[in-house]
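LOG
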Amino acid sequence: MYYIRFLVLAQEEHTLNKEEIALIGYVIFALLLLSTMIILFFVTFQKRKNKLLLEQIEQQKRFDEEISRTQSEIQEQTLKHVGWELHDNVGQLLAYANMQLKMVTSKAPEDLKAKLEDASLSVKESLKEVRSLSKSLNNDVLLNMGFEESISNELSRLKRMKFSSAELSVKGNTKTIEDKKHEIILFRILQEFFSNSVKYSEAEVINVTLDYHENQLVITASDNGKGFDINTSEKGSGLINMKSRAELINATYDLQTEPNDGVTLTIKYPL
């Protein structure tokens, strides 16, 4: 009798242990399932968060590019208008003034003719300068002239105005810049460099090299002016404009300068 009761108790204890093991198993499975769900939720959330951040960055980049493009277009329209005004109004006034001076010179006394001829020559040179400047401001004229001729025209104007030497050299086989807007932007970057050289460099020589490679055009512009410390110098709108314009057309921009060692600008444009 005692033996039978012992067997019953042992069987009940064995059943209880199996139930406890099963319960523990269920708990562990539930915890694993919950942990997996939490991890999956966290990973999914993180992916969506990263995707949203990337989309925001891309949207900001497109917005900045659109702003730069709009600013560039506004500047081009303004420059075109100024170019027209110079050519049509100021140019005509100078041409009329030169014609009047010639008429006066033909009737003036001999002692005044030399001075009037000098004045006429100055007006004639001013007219030439105005016409050359109007060409460099009007993007339609620039496109008709072509990239290299536009640079040559600008360098000739600078040589008459300030520099003892302003030369363009071309290396490699000339290749056409397919996007004409990019051609205008590259020219405007060079114009900004020329403008800075005129205003700040105290240079006497300025050179531009167009080096055509298979897949890129390397543009180098340099002057022999006083230069500056690029690390400590405050970056003006000119330097910022050059860099932002280069980025707008996927060109690399590099400006190298040191005090008393001139300035060299290198632009690498993918063809």
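LOG (cont.) second protein
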Amino acid sequence: MMERQKIAARIRALLAKTVANGCTEAEAVAAAELAAKLLAQYELTLDDLELRSTPFAQTMGQDVDDLGPQVWKVAAAIADLVGVRYWTTGAGVRPVQVTFFGFTHEVEIATYLLEICQHAMRGQLTRLQRDVALLRRTVQAMRIRAFLDGMAERLAERIRALKPPPAQAGTGLVVLRGEMIDRALHVAGIELEPLSGRSSRNLDPEYQAGRLAADRVGLNPGLRAGPAHGRLNGRRP
């Protein structure tokens, strides 16, 4: 037991060797490689007993019932930008939620970004619901869906555009970190399966209005630098 605690402490120290903490990218990559080897060699889990200071975190979920399926496009783009995994609650489960999993500081950034986008989408949804209140319910639903399609897809495009090119991001380190996150998911008993998508109403006039609304959302340019179990609806970025 003492040896495993020492190994766990060593892994935590290795994971702390990041570019953000003053290491070069080469040093960070070497530390991540060694940490991954030690995790596999000693078959360590990432629960409180083995790694009390685990670098991984999981959000409790973001309630998105009122925004419909469109918000998953935004969550997918955020996961791709930040380097985390995400999933949604299963079919028929309420409230519908988005959950992010990954390194703690990156989960915090992902959650922050999603909150910005959700706030903007809810504000526009409230305005549109007021504007179409006198229309038939079927017409209301079509216009709202088209608007949210446009807004979500444009937000996703803008978020993906914040991602640095591969050479700048450091591909070796990105791959190693991704493997470590996937291993942590496996240890936690979380298995992701692809989401089934649907086509957007991009031919409706409200779709373009939604895209224009998305262009007015302030996304922090500084972001460029940077317990559910069982089978869940989600995907890897």
